[in-house]
Amino acid sequence: MSVEASGFLPINLLTGFLGSGKTTLLKRILADPAFADTAVLINEFGEIGLDHDLVESVDGEMVLLRSGCVCCTVRDDLATALKELYSRRERGLLPPFRRVIIESTGLADPFPVLSTIKADPVLRHHFCAGNVITTVDTVNGLRQLDTYIESNRQVAVADRLIVTKADLEADSKGDSLRARLRTLNPDAPILTAADPNLDLSSLVAVQSDVSPSGSLSQSGFYCEEPVRLVSSDGVPHQAAISSISLSIDRPVDWTAFGLWLTMLLNRHGERVLRVKGILNLNGEERPVAVHGVQHLVHTPVHMDGWPSEDRSSRLVFILDGLDGALLKRSFEAFTLAHMPVVASCQIAAAR
Ligand SMILES: Nc1nc2c(ncn2[C@@H]2O[C@H](COP(=O)(O)OP(=O)(O)OP(=O)(O)O)[C@@H](O)[C@H]2O)c(=O)[nH]1
Q1: Are residues 241 and 194 in the same domain?
Q2: ipTM of this model?
Q3: Are the beta carbons of 72 and 85 closer than 8 angstroms?
Q4: Cβ neighbours, 10 Å, residue 215
């Protein structure tokens, strides 16, 4: 039975390690009119969620994007968020979206996400599995696969693997990454994000045959026996991972900030898994989005405007074995002298 005939709403899981390009790919999908009837759930790690804003939405937990897509943030319970979304659609409170894309956190082990959908009888009644799409960063991907079990799981479960940032690396590194991906997941097509002809429809696809129960066999969504992958030292890495969120309510000096970030990543890049933020810079009307992944700092981008009334600068760091309190103190010392910084640390729970 075709998906349309089945009445099930397909769910695509968009996963991939921290900073590997999930939101970038999501924005590309949502910008395509063919996907205007999409609902997006963004699952965020860190106290200050930023992806929601970086998709250029307005504030609030659930918003209607300019493209007509629905976007909301999941902080606690994925099953509840999906049911709420479906219920609002049925009651005519949301447009009749025809698919859901879940952007997982970069630290997520995809299996619990997938089994949440499988295990819940209500969800099984309304939703079916679309492709699991996994982004892998050419610059940092091999090291992340060497170090983080979650990265291996994200690759193993994929129906489509998207290699990102190939434009920033030599071809030989891209070739090594592809070879590694092939060993972890021999079946999934490996596609390149930089390819202007990347067929988004085949990414956001659904297996053509949907059984009435909604169960699908090919996708990792319905994997009964999760693939067992063991990290090199056998230690779960989540234990050392923490996040710190910094919020600064006065404009930031770009030069001082840039110097501080460069020094931080030069010294501790291995342990700064991700930094992303929205900055209110001295002399700038529009906010600037900054992104870093380990030693790599991406070119800062001026956003179209502030996503909400909040004009404070916000930064989220995800750290592996680096003390967030020390990082905050260093930030204050370098960039803000004695300006107040509101910060909080939390221990990560990979979802
Ligand atoms: N040059 C280049 N930059 C890219 C590519 N894909 C993503 N980026 C950049 O990488 C940075 C991180 O991209 P995001 O899309 O935010 O990554 P993410 O996986 O959503 O990050 P998290 O949600 O924090 O895990 C941004 O600065 C992007 O512009 C790519 O193919 N080439």
Answers
A1: no
A2: 0.99
A3: yes
A4: 13
Residue 298 CA: nearest ligand 1 atom is 27
Give pTM, 2 decimals. 0.80
Domain range holding 297? 237-347
Whether residue 232 is contained in a domain is answered as no
On whether residue 19 sits in a domain, the answer given is yes
Note whether residue 227 is domain-resident.
no
Helix, strand, or coil here: 242?
strand
> Can you spell out the DSSP letters for 67-109?
TS-EEEEESS-HHHHHHHHHHHHHTTSS----EEEEE--TT--
> Ligand 1: which of 52, 291, 301, 351 to mutate, most ligand atoms within 8 Å of CB?
291
The whole-angstrom distance between residue 208's C-alpha and the CA centroid of its chain comes to 27
Give the tokens for residue 86: 């479906």
Closest CA to 314 of 30, 44, 43, 105: 44
Over residues 208-231, mean pLDDT: 36
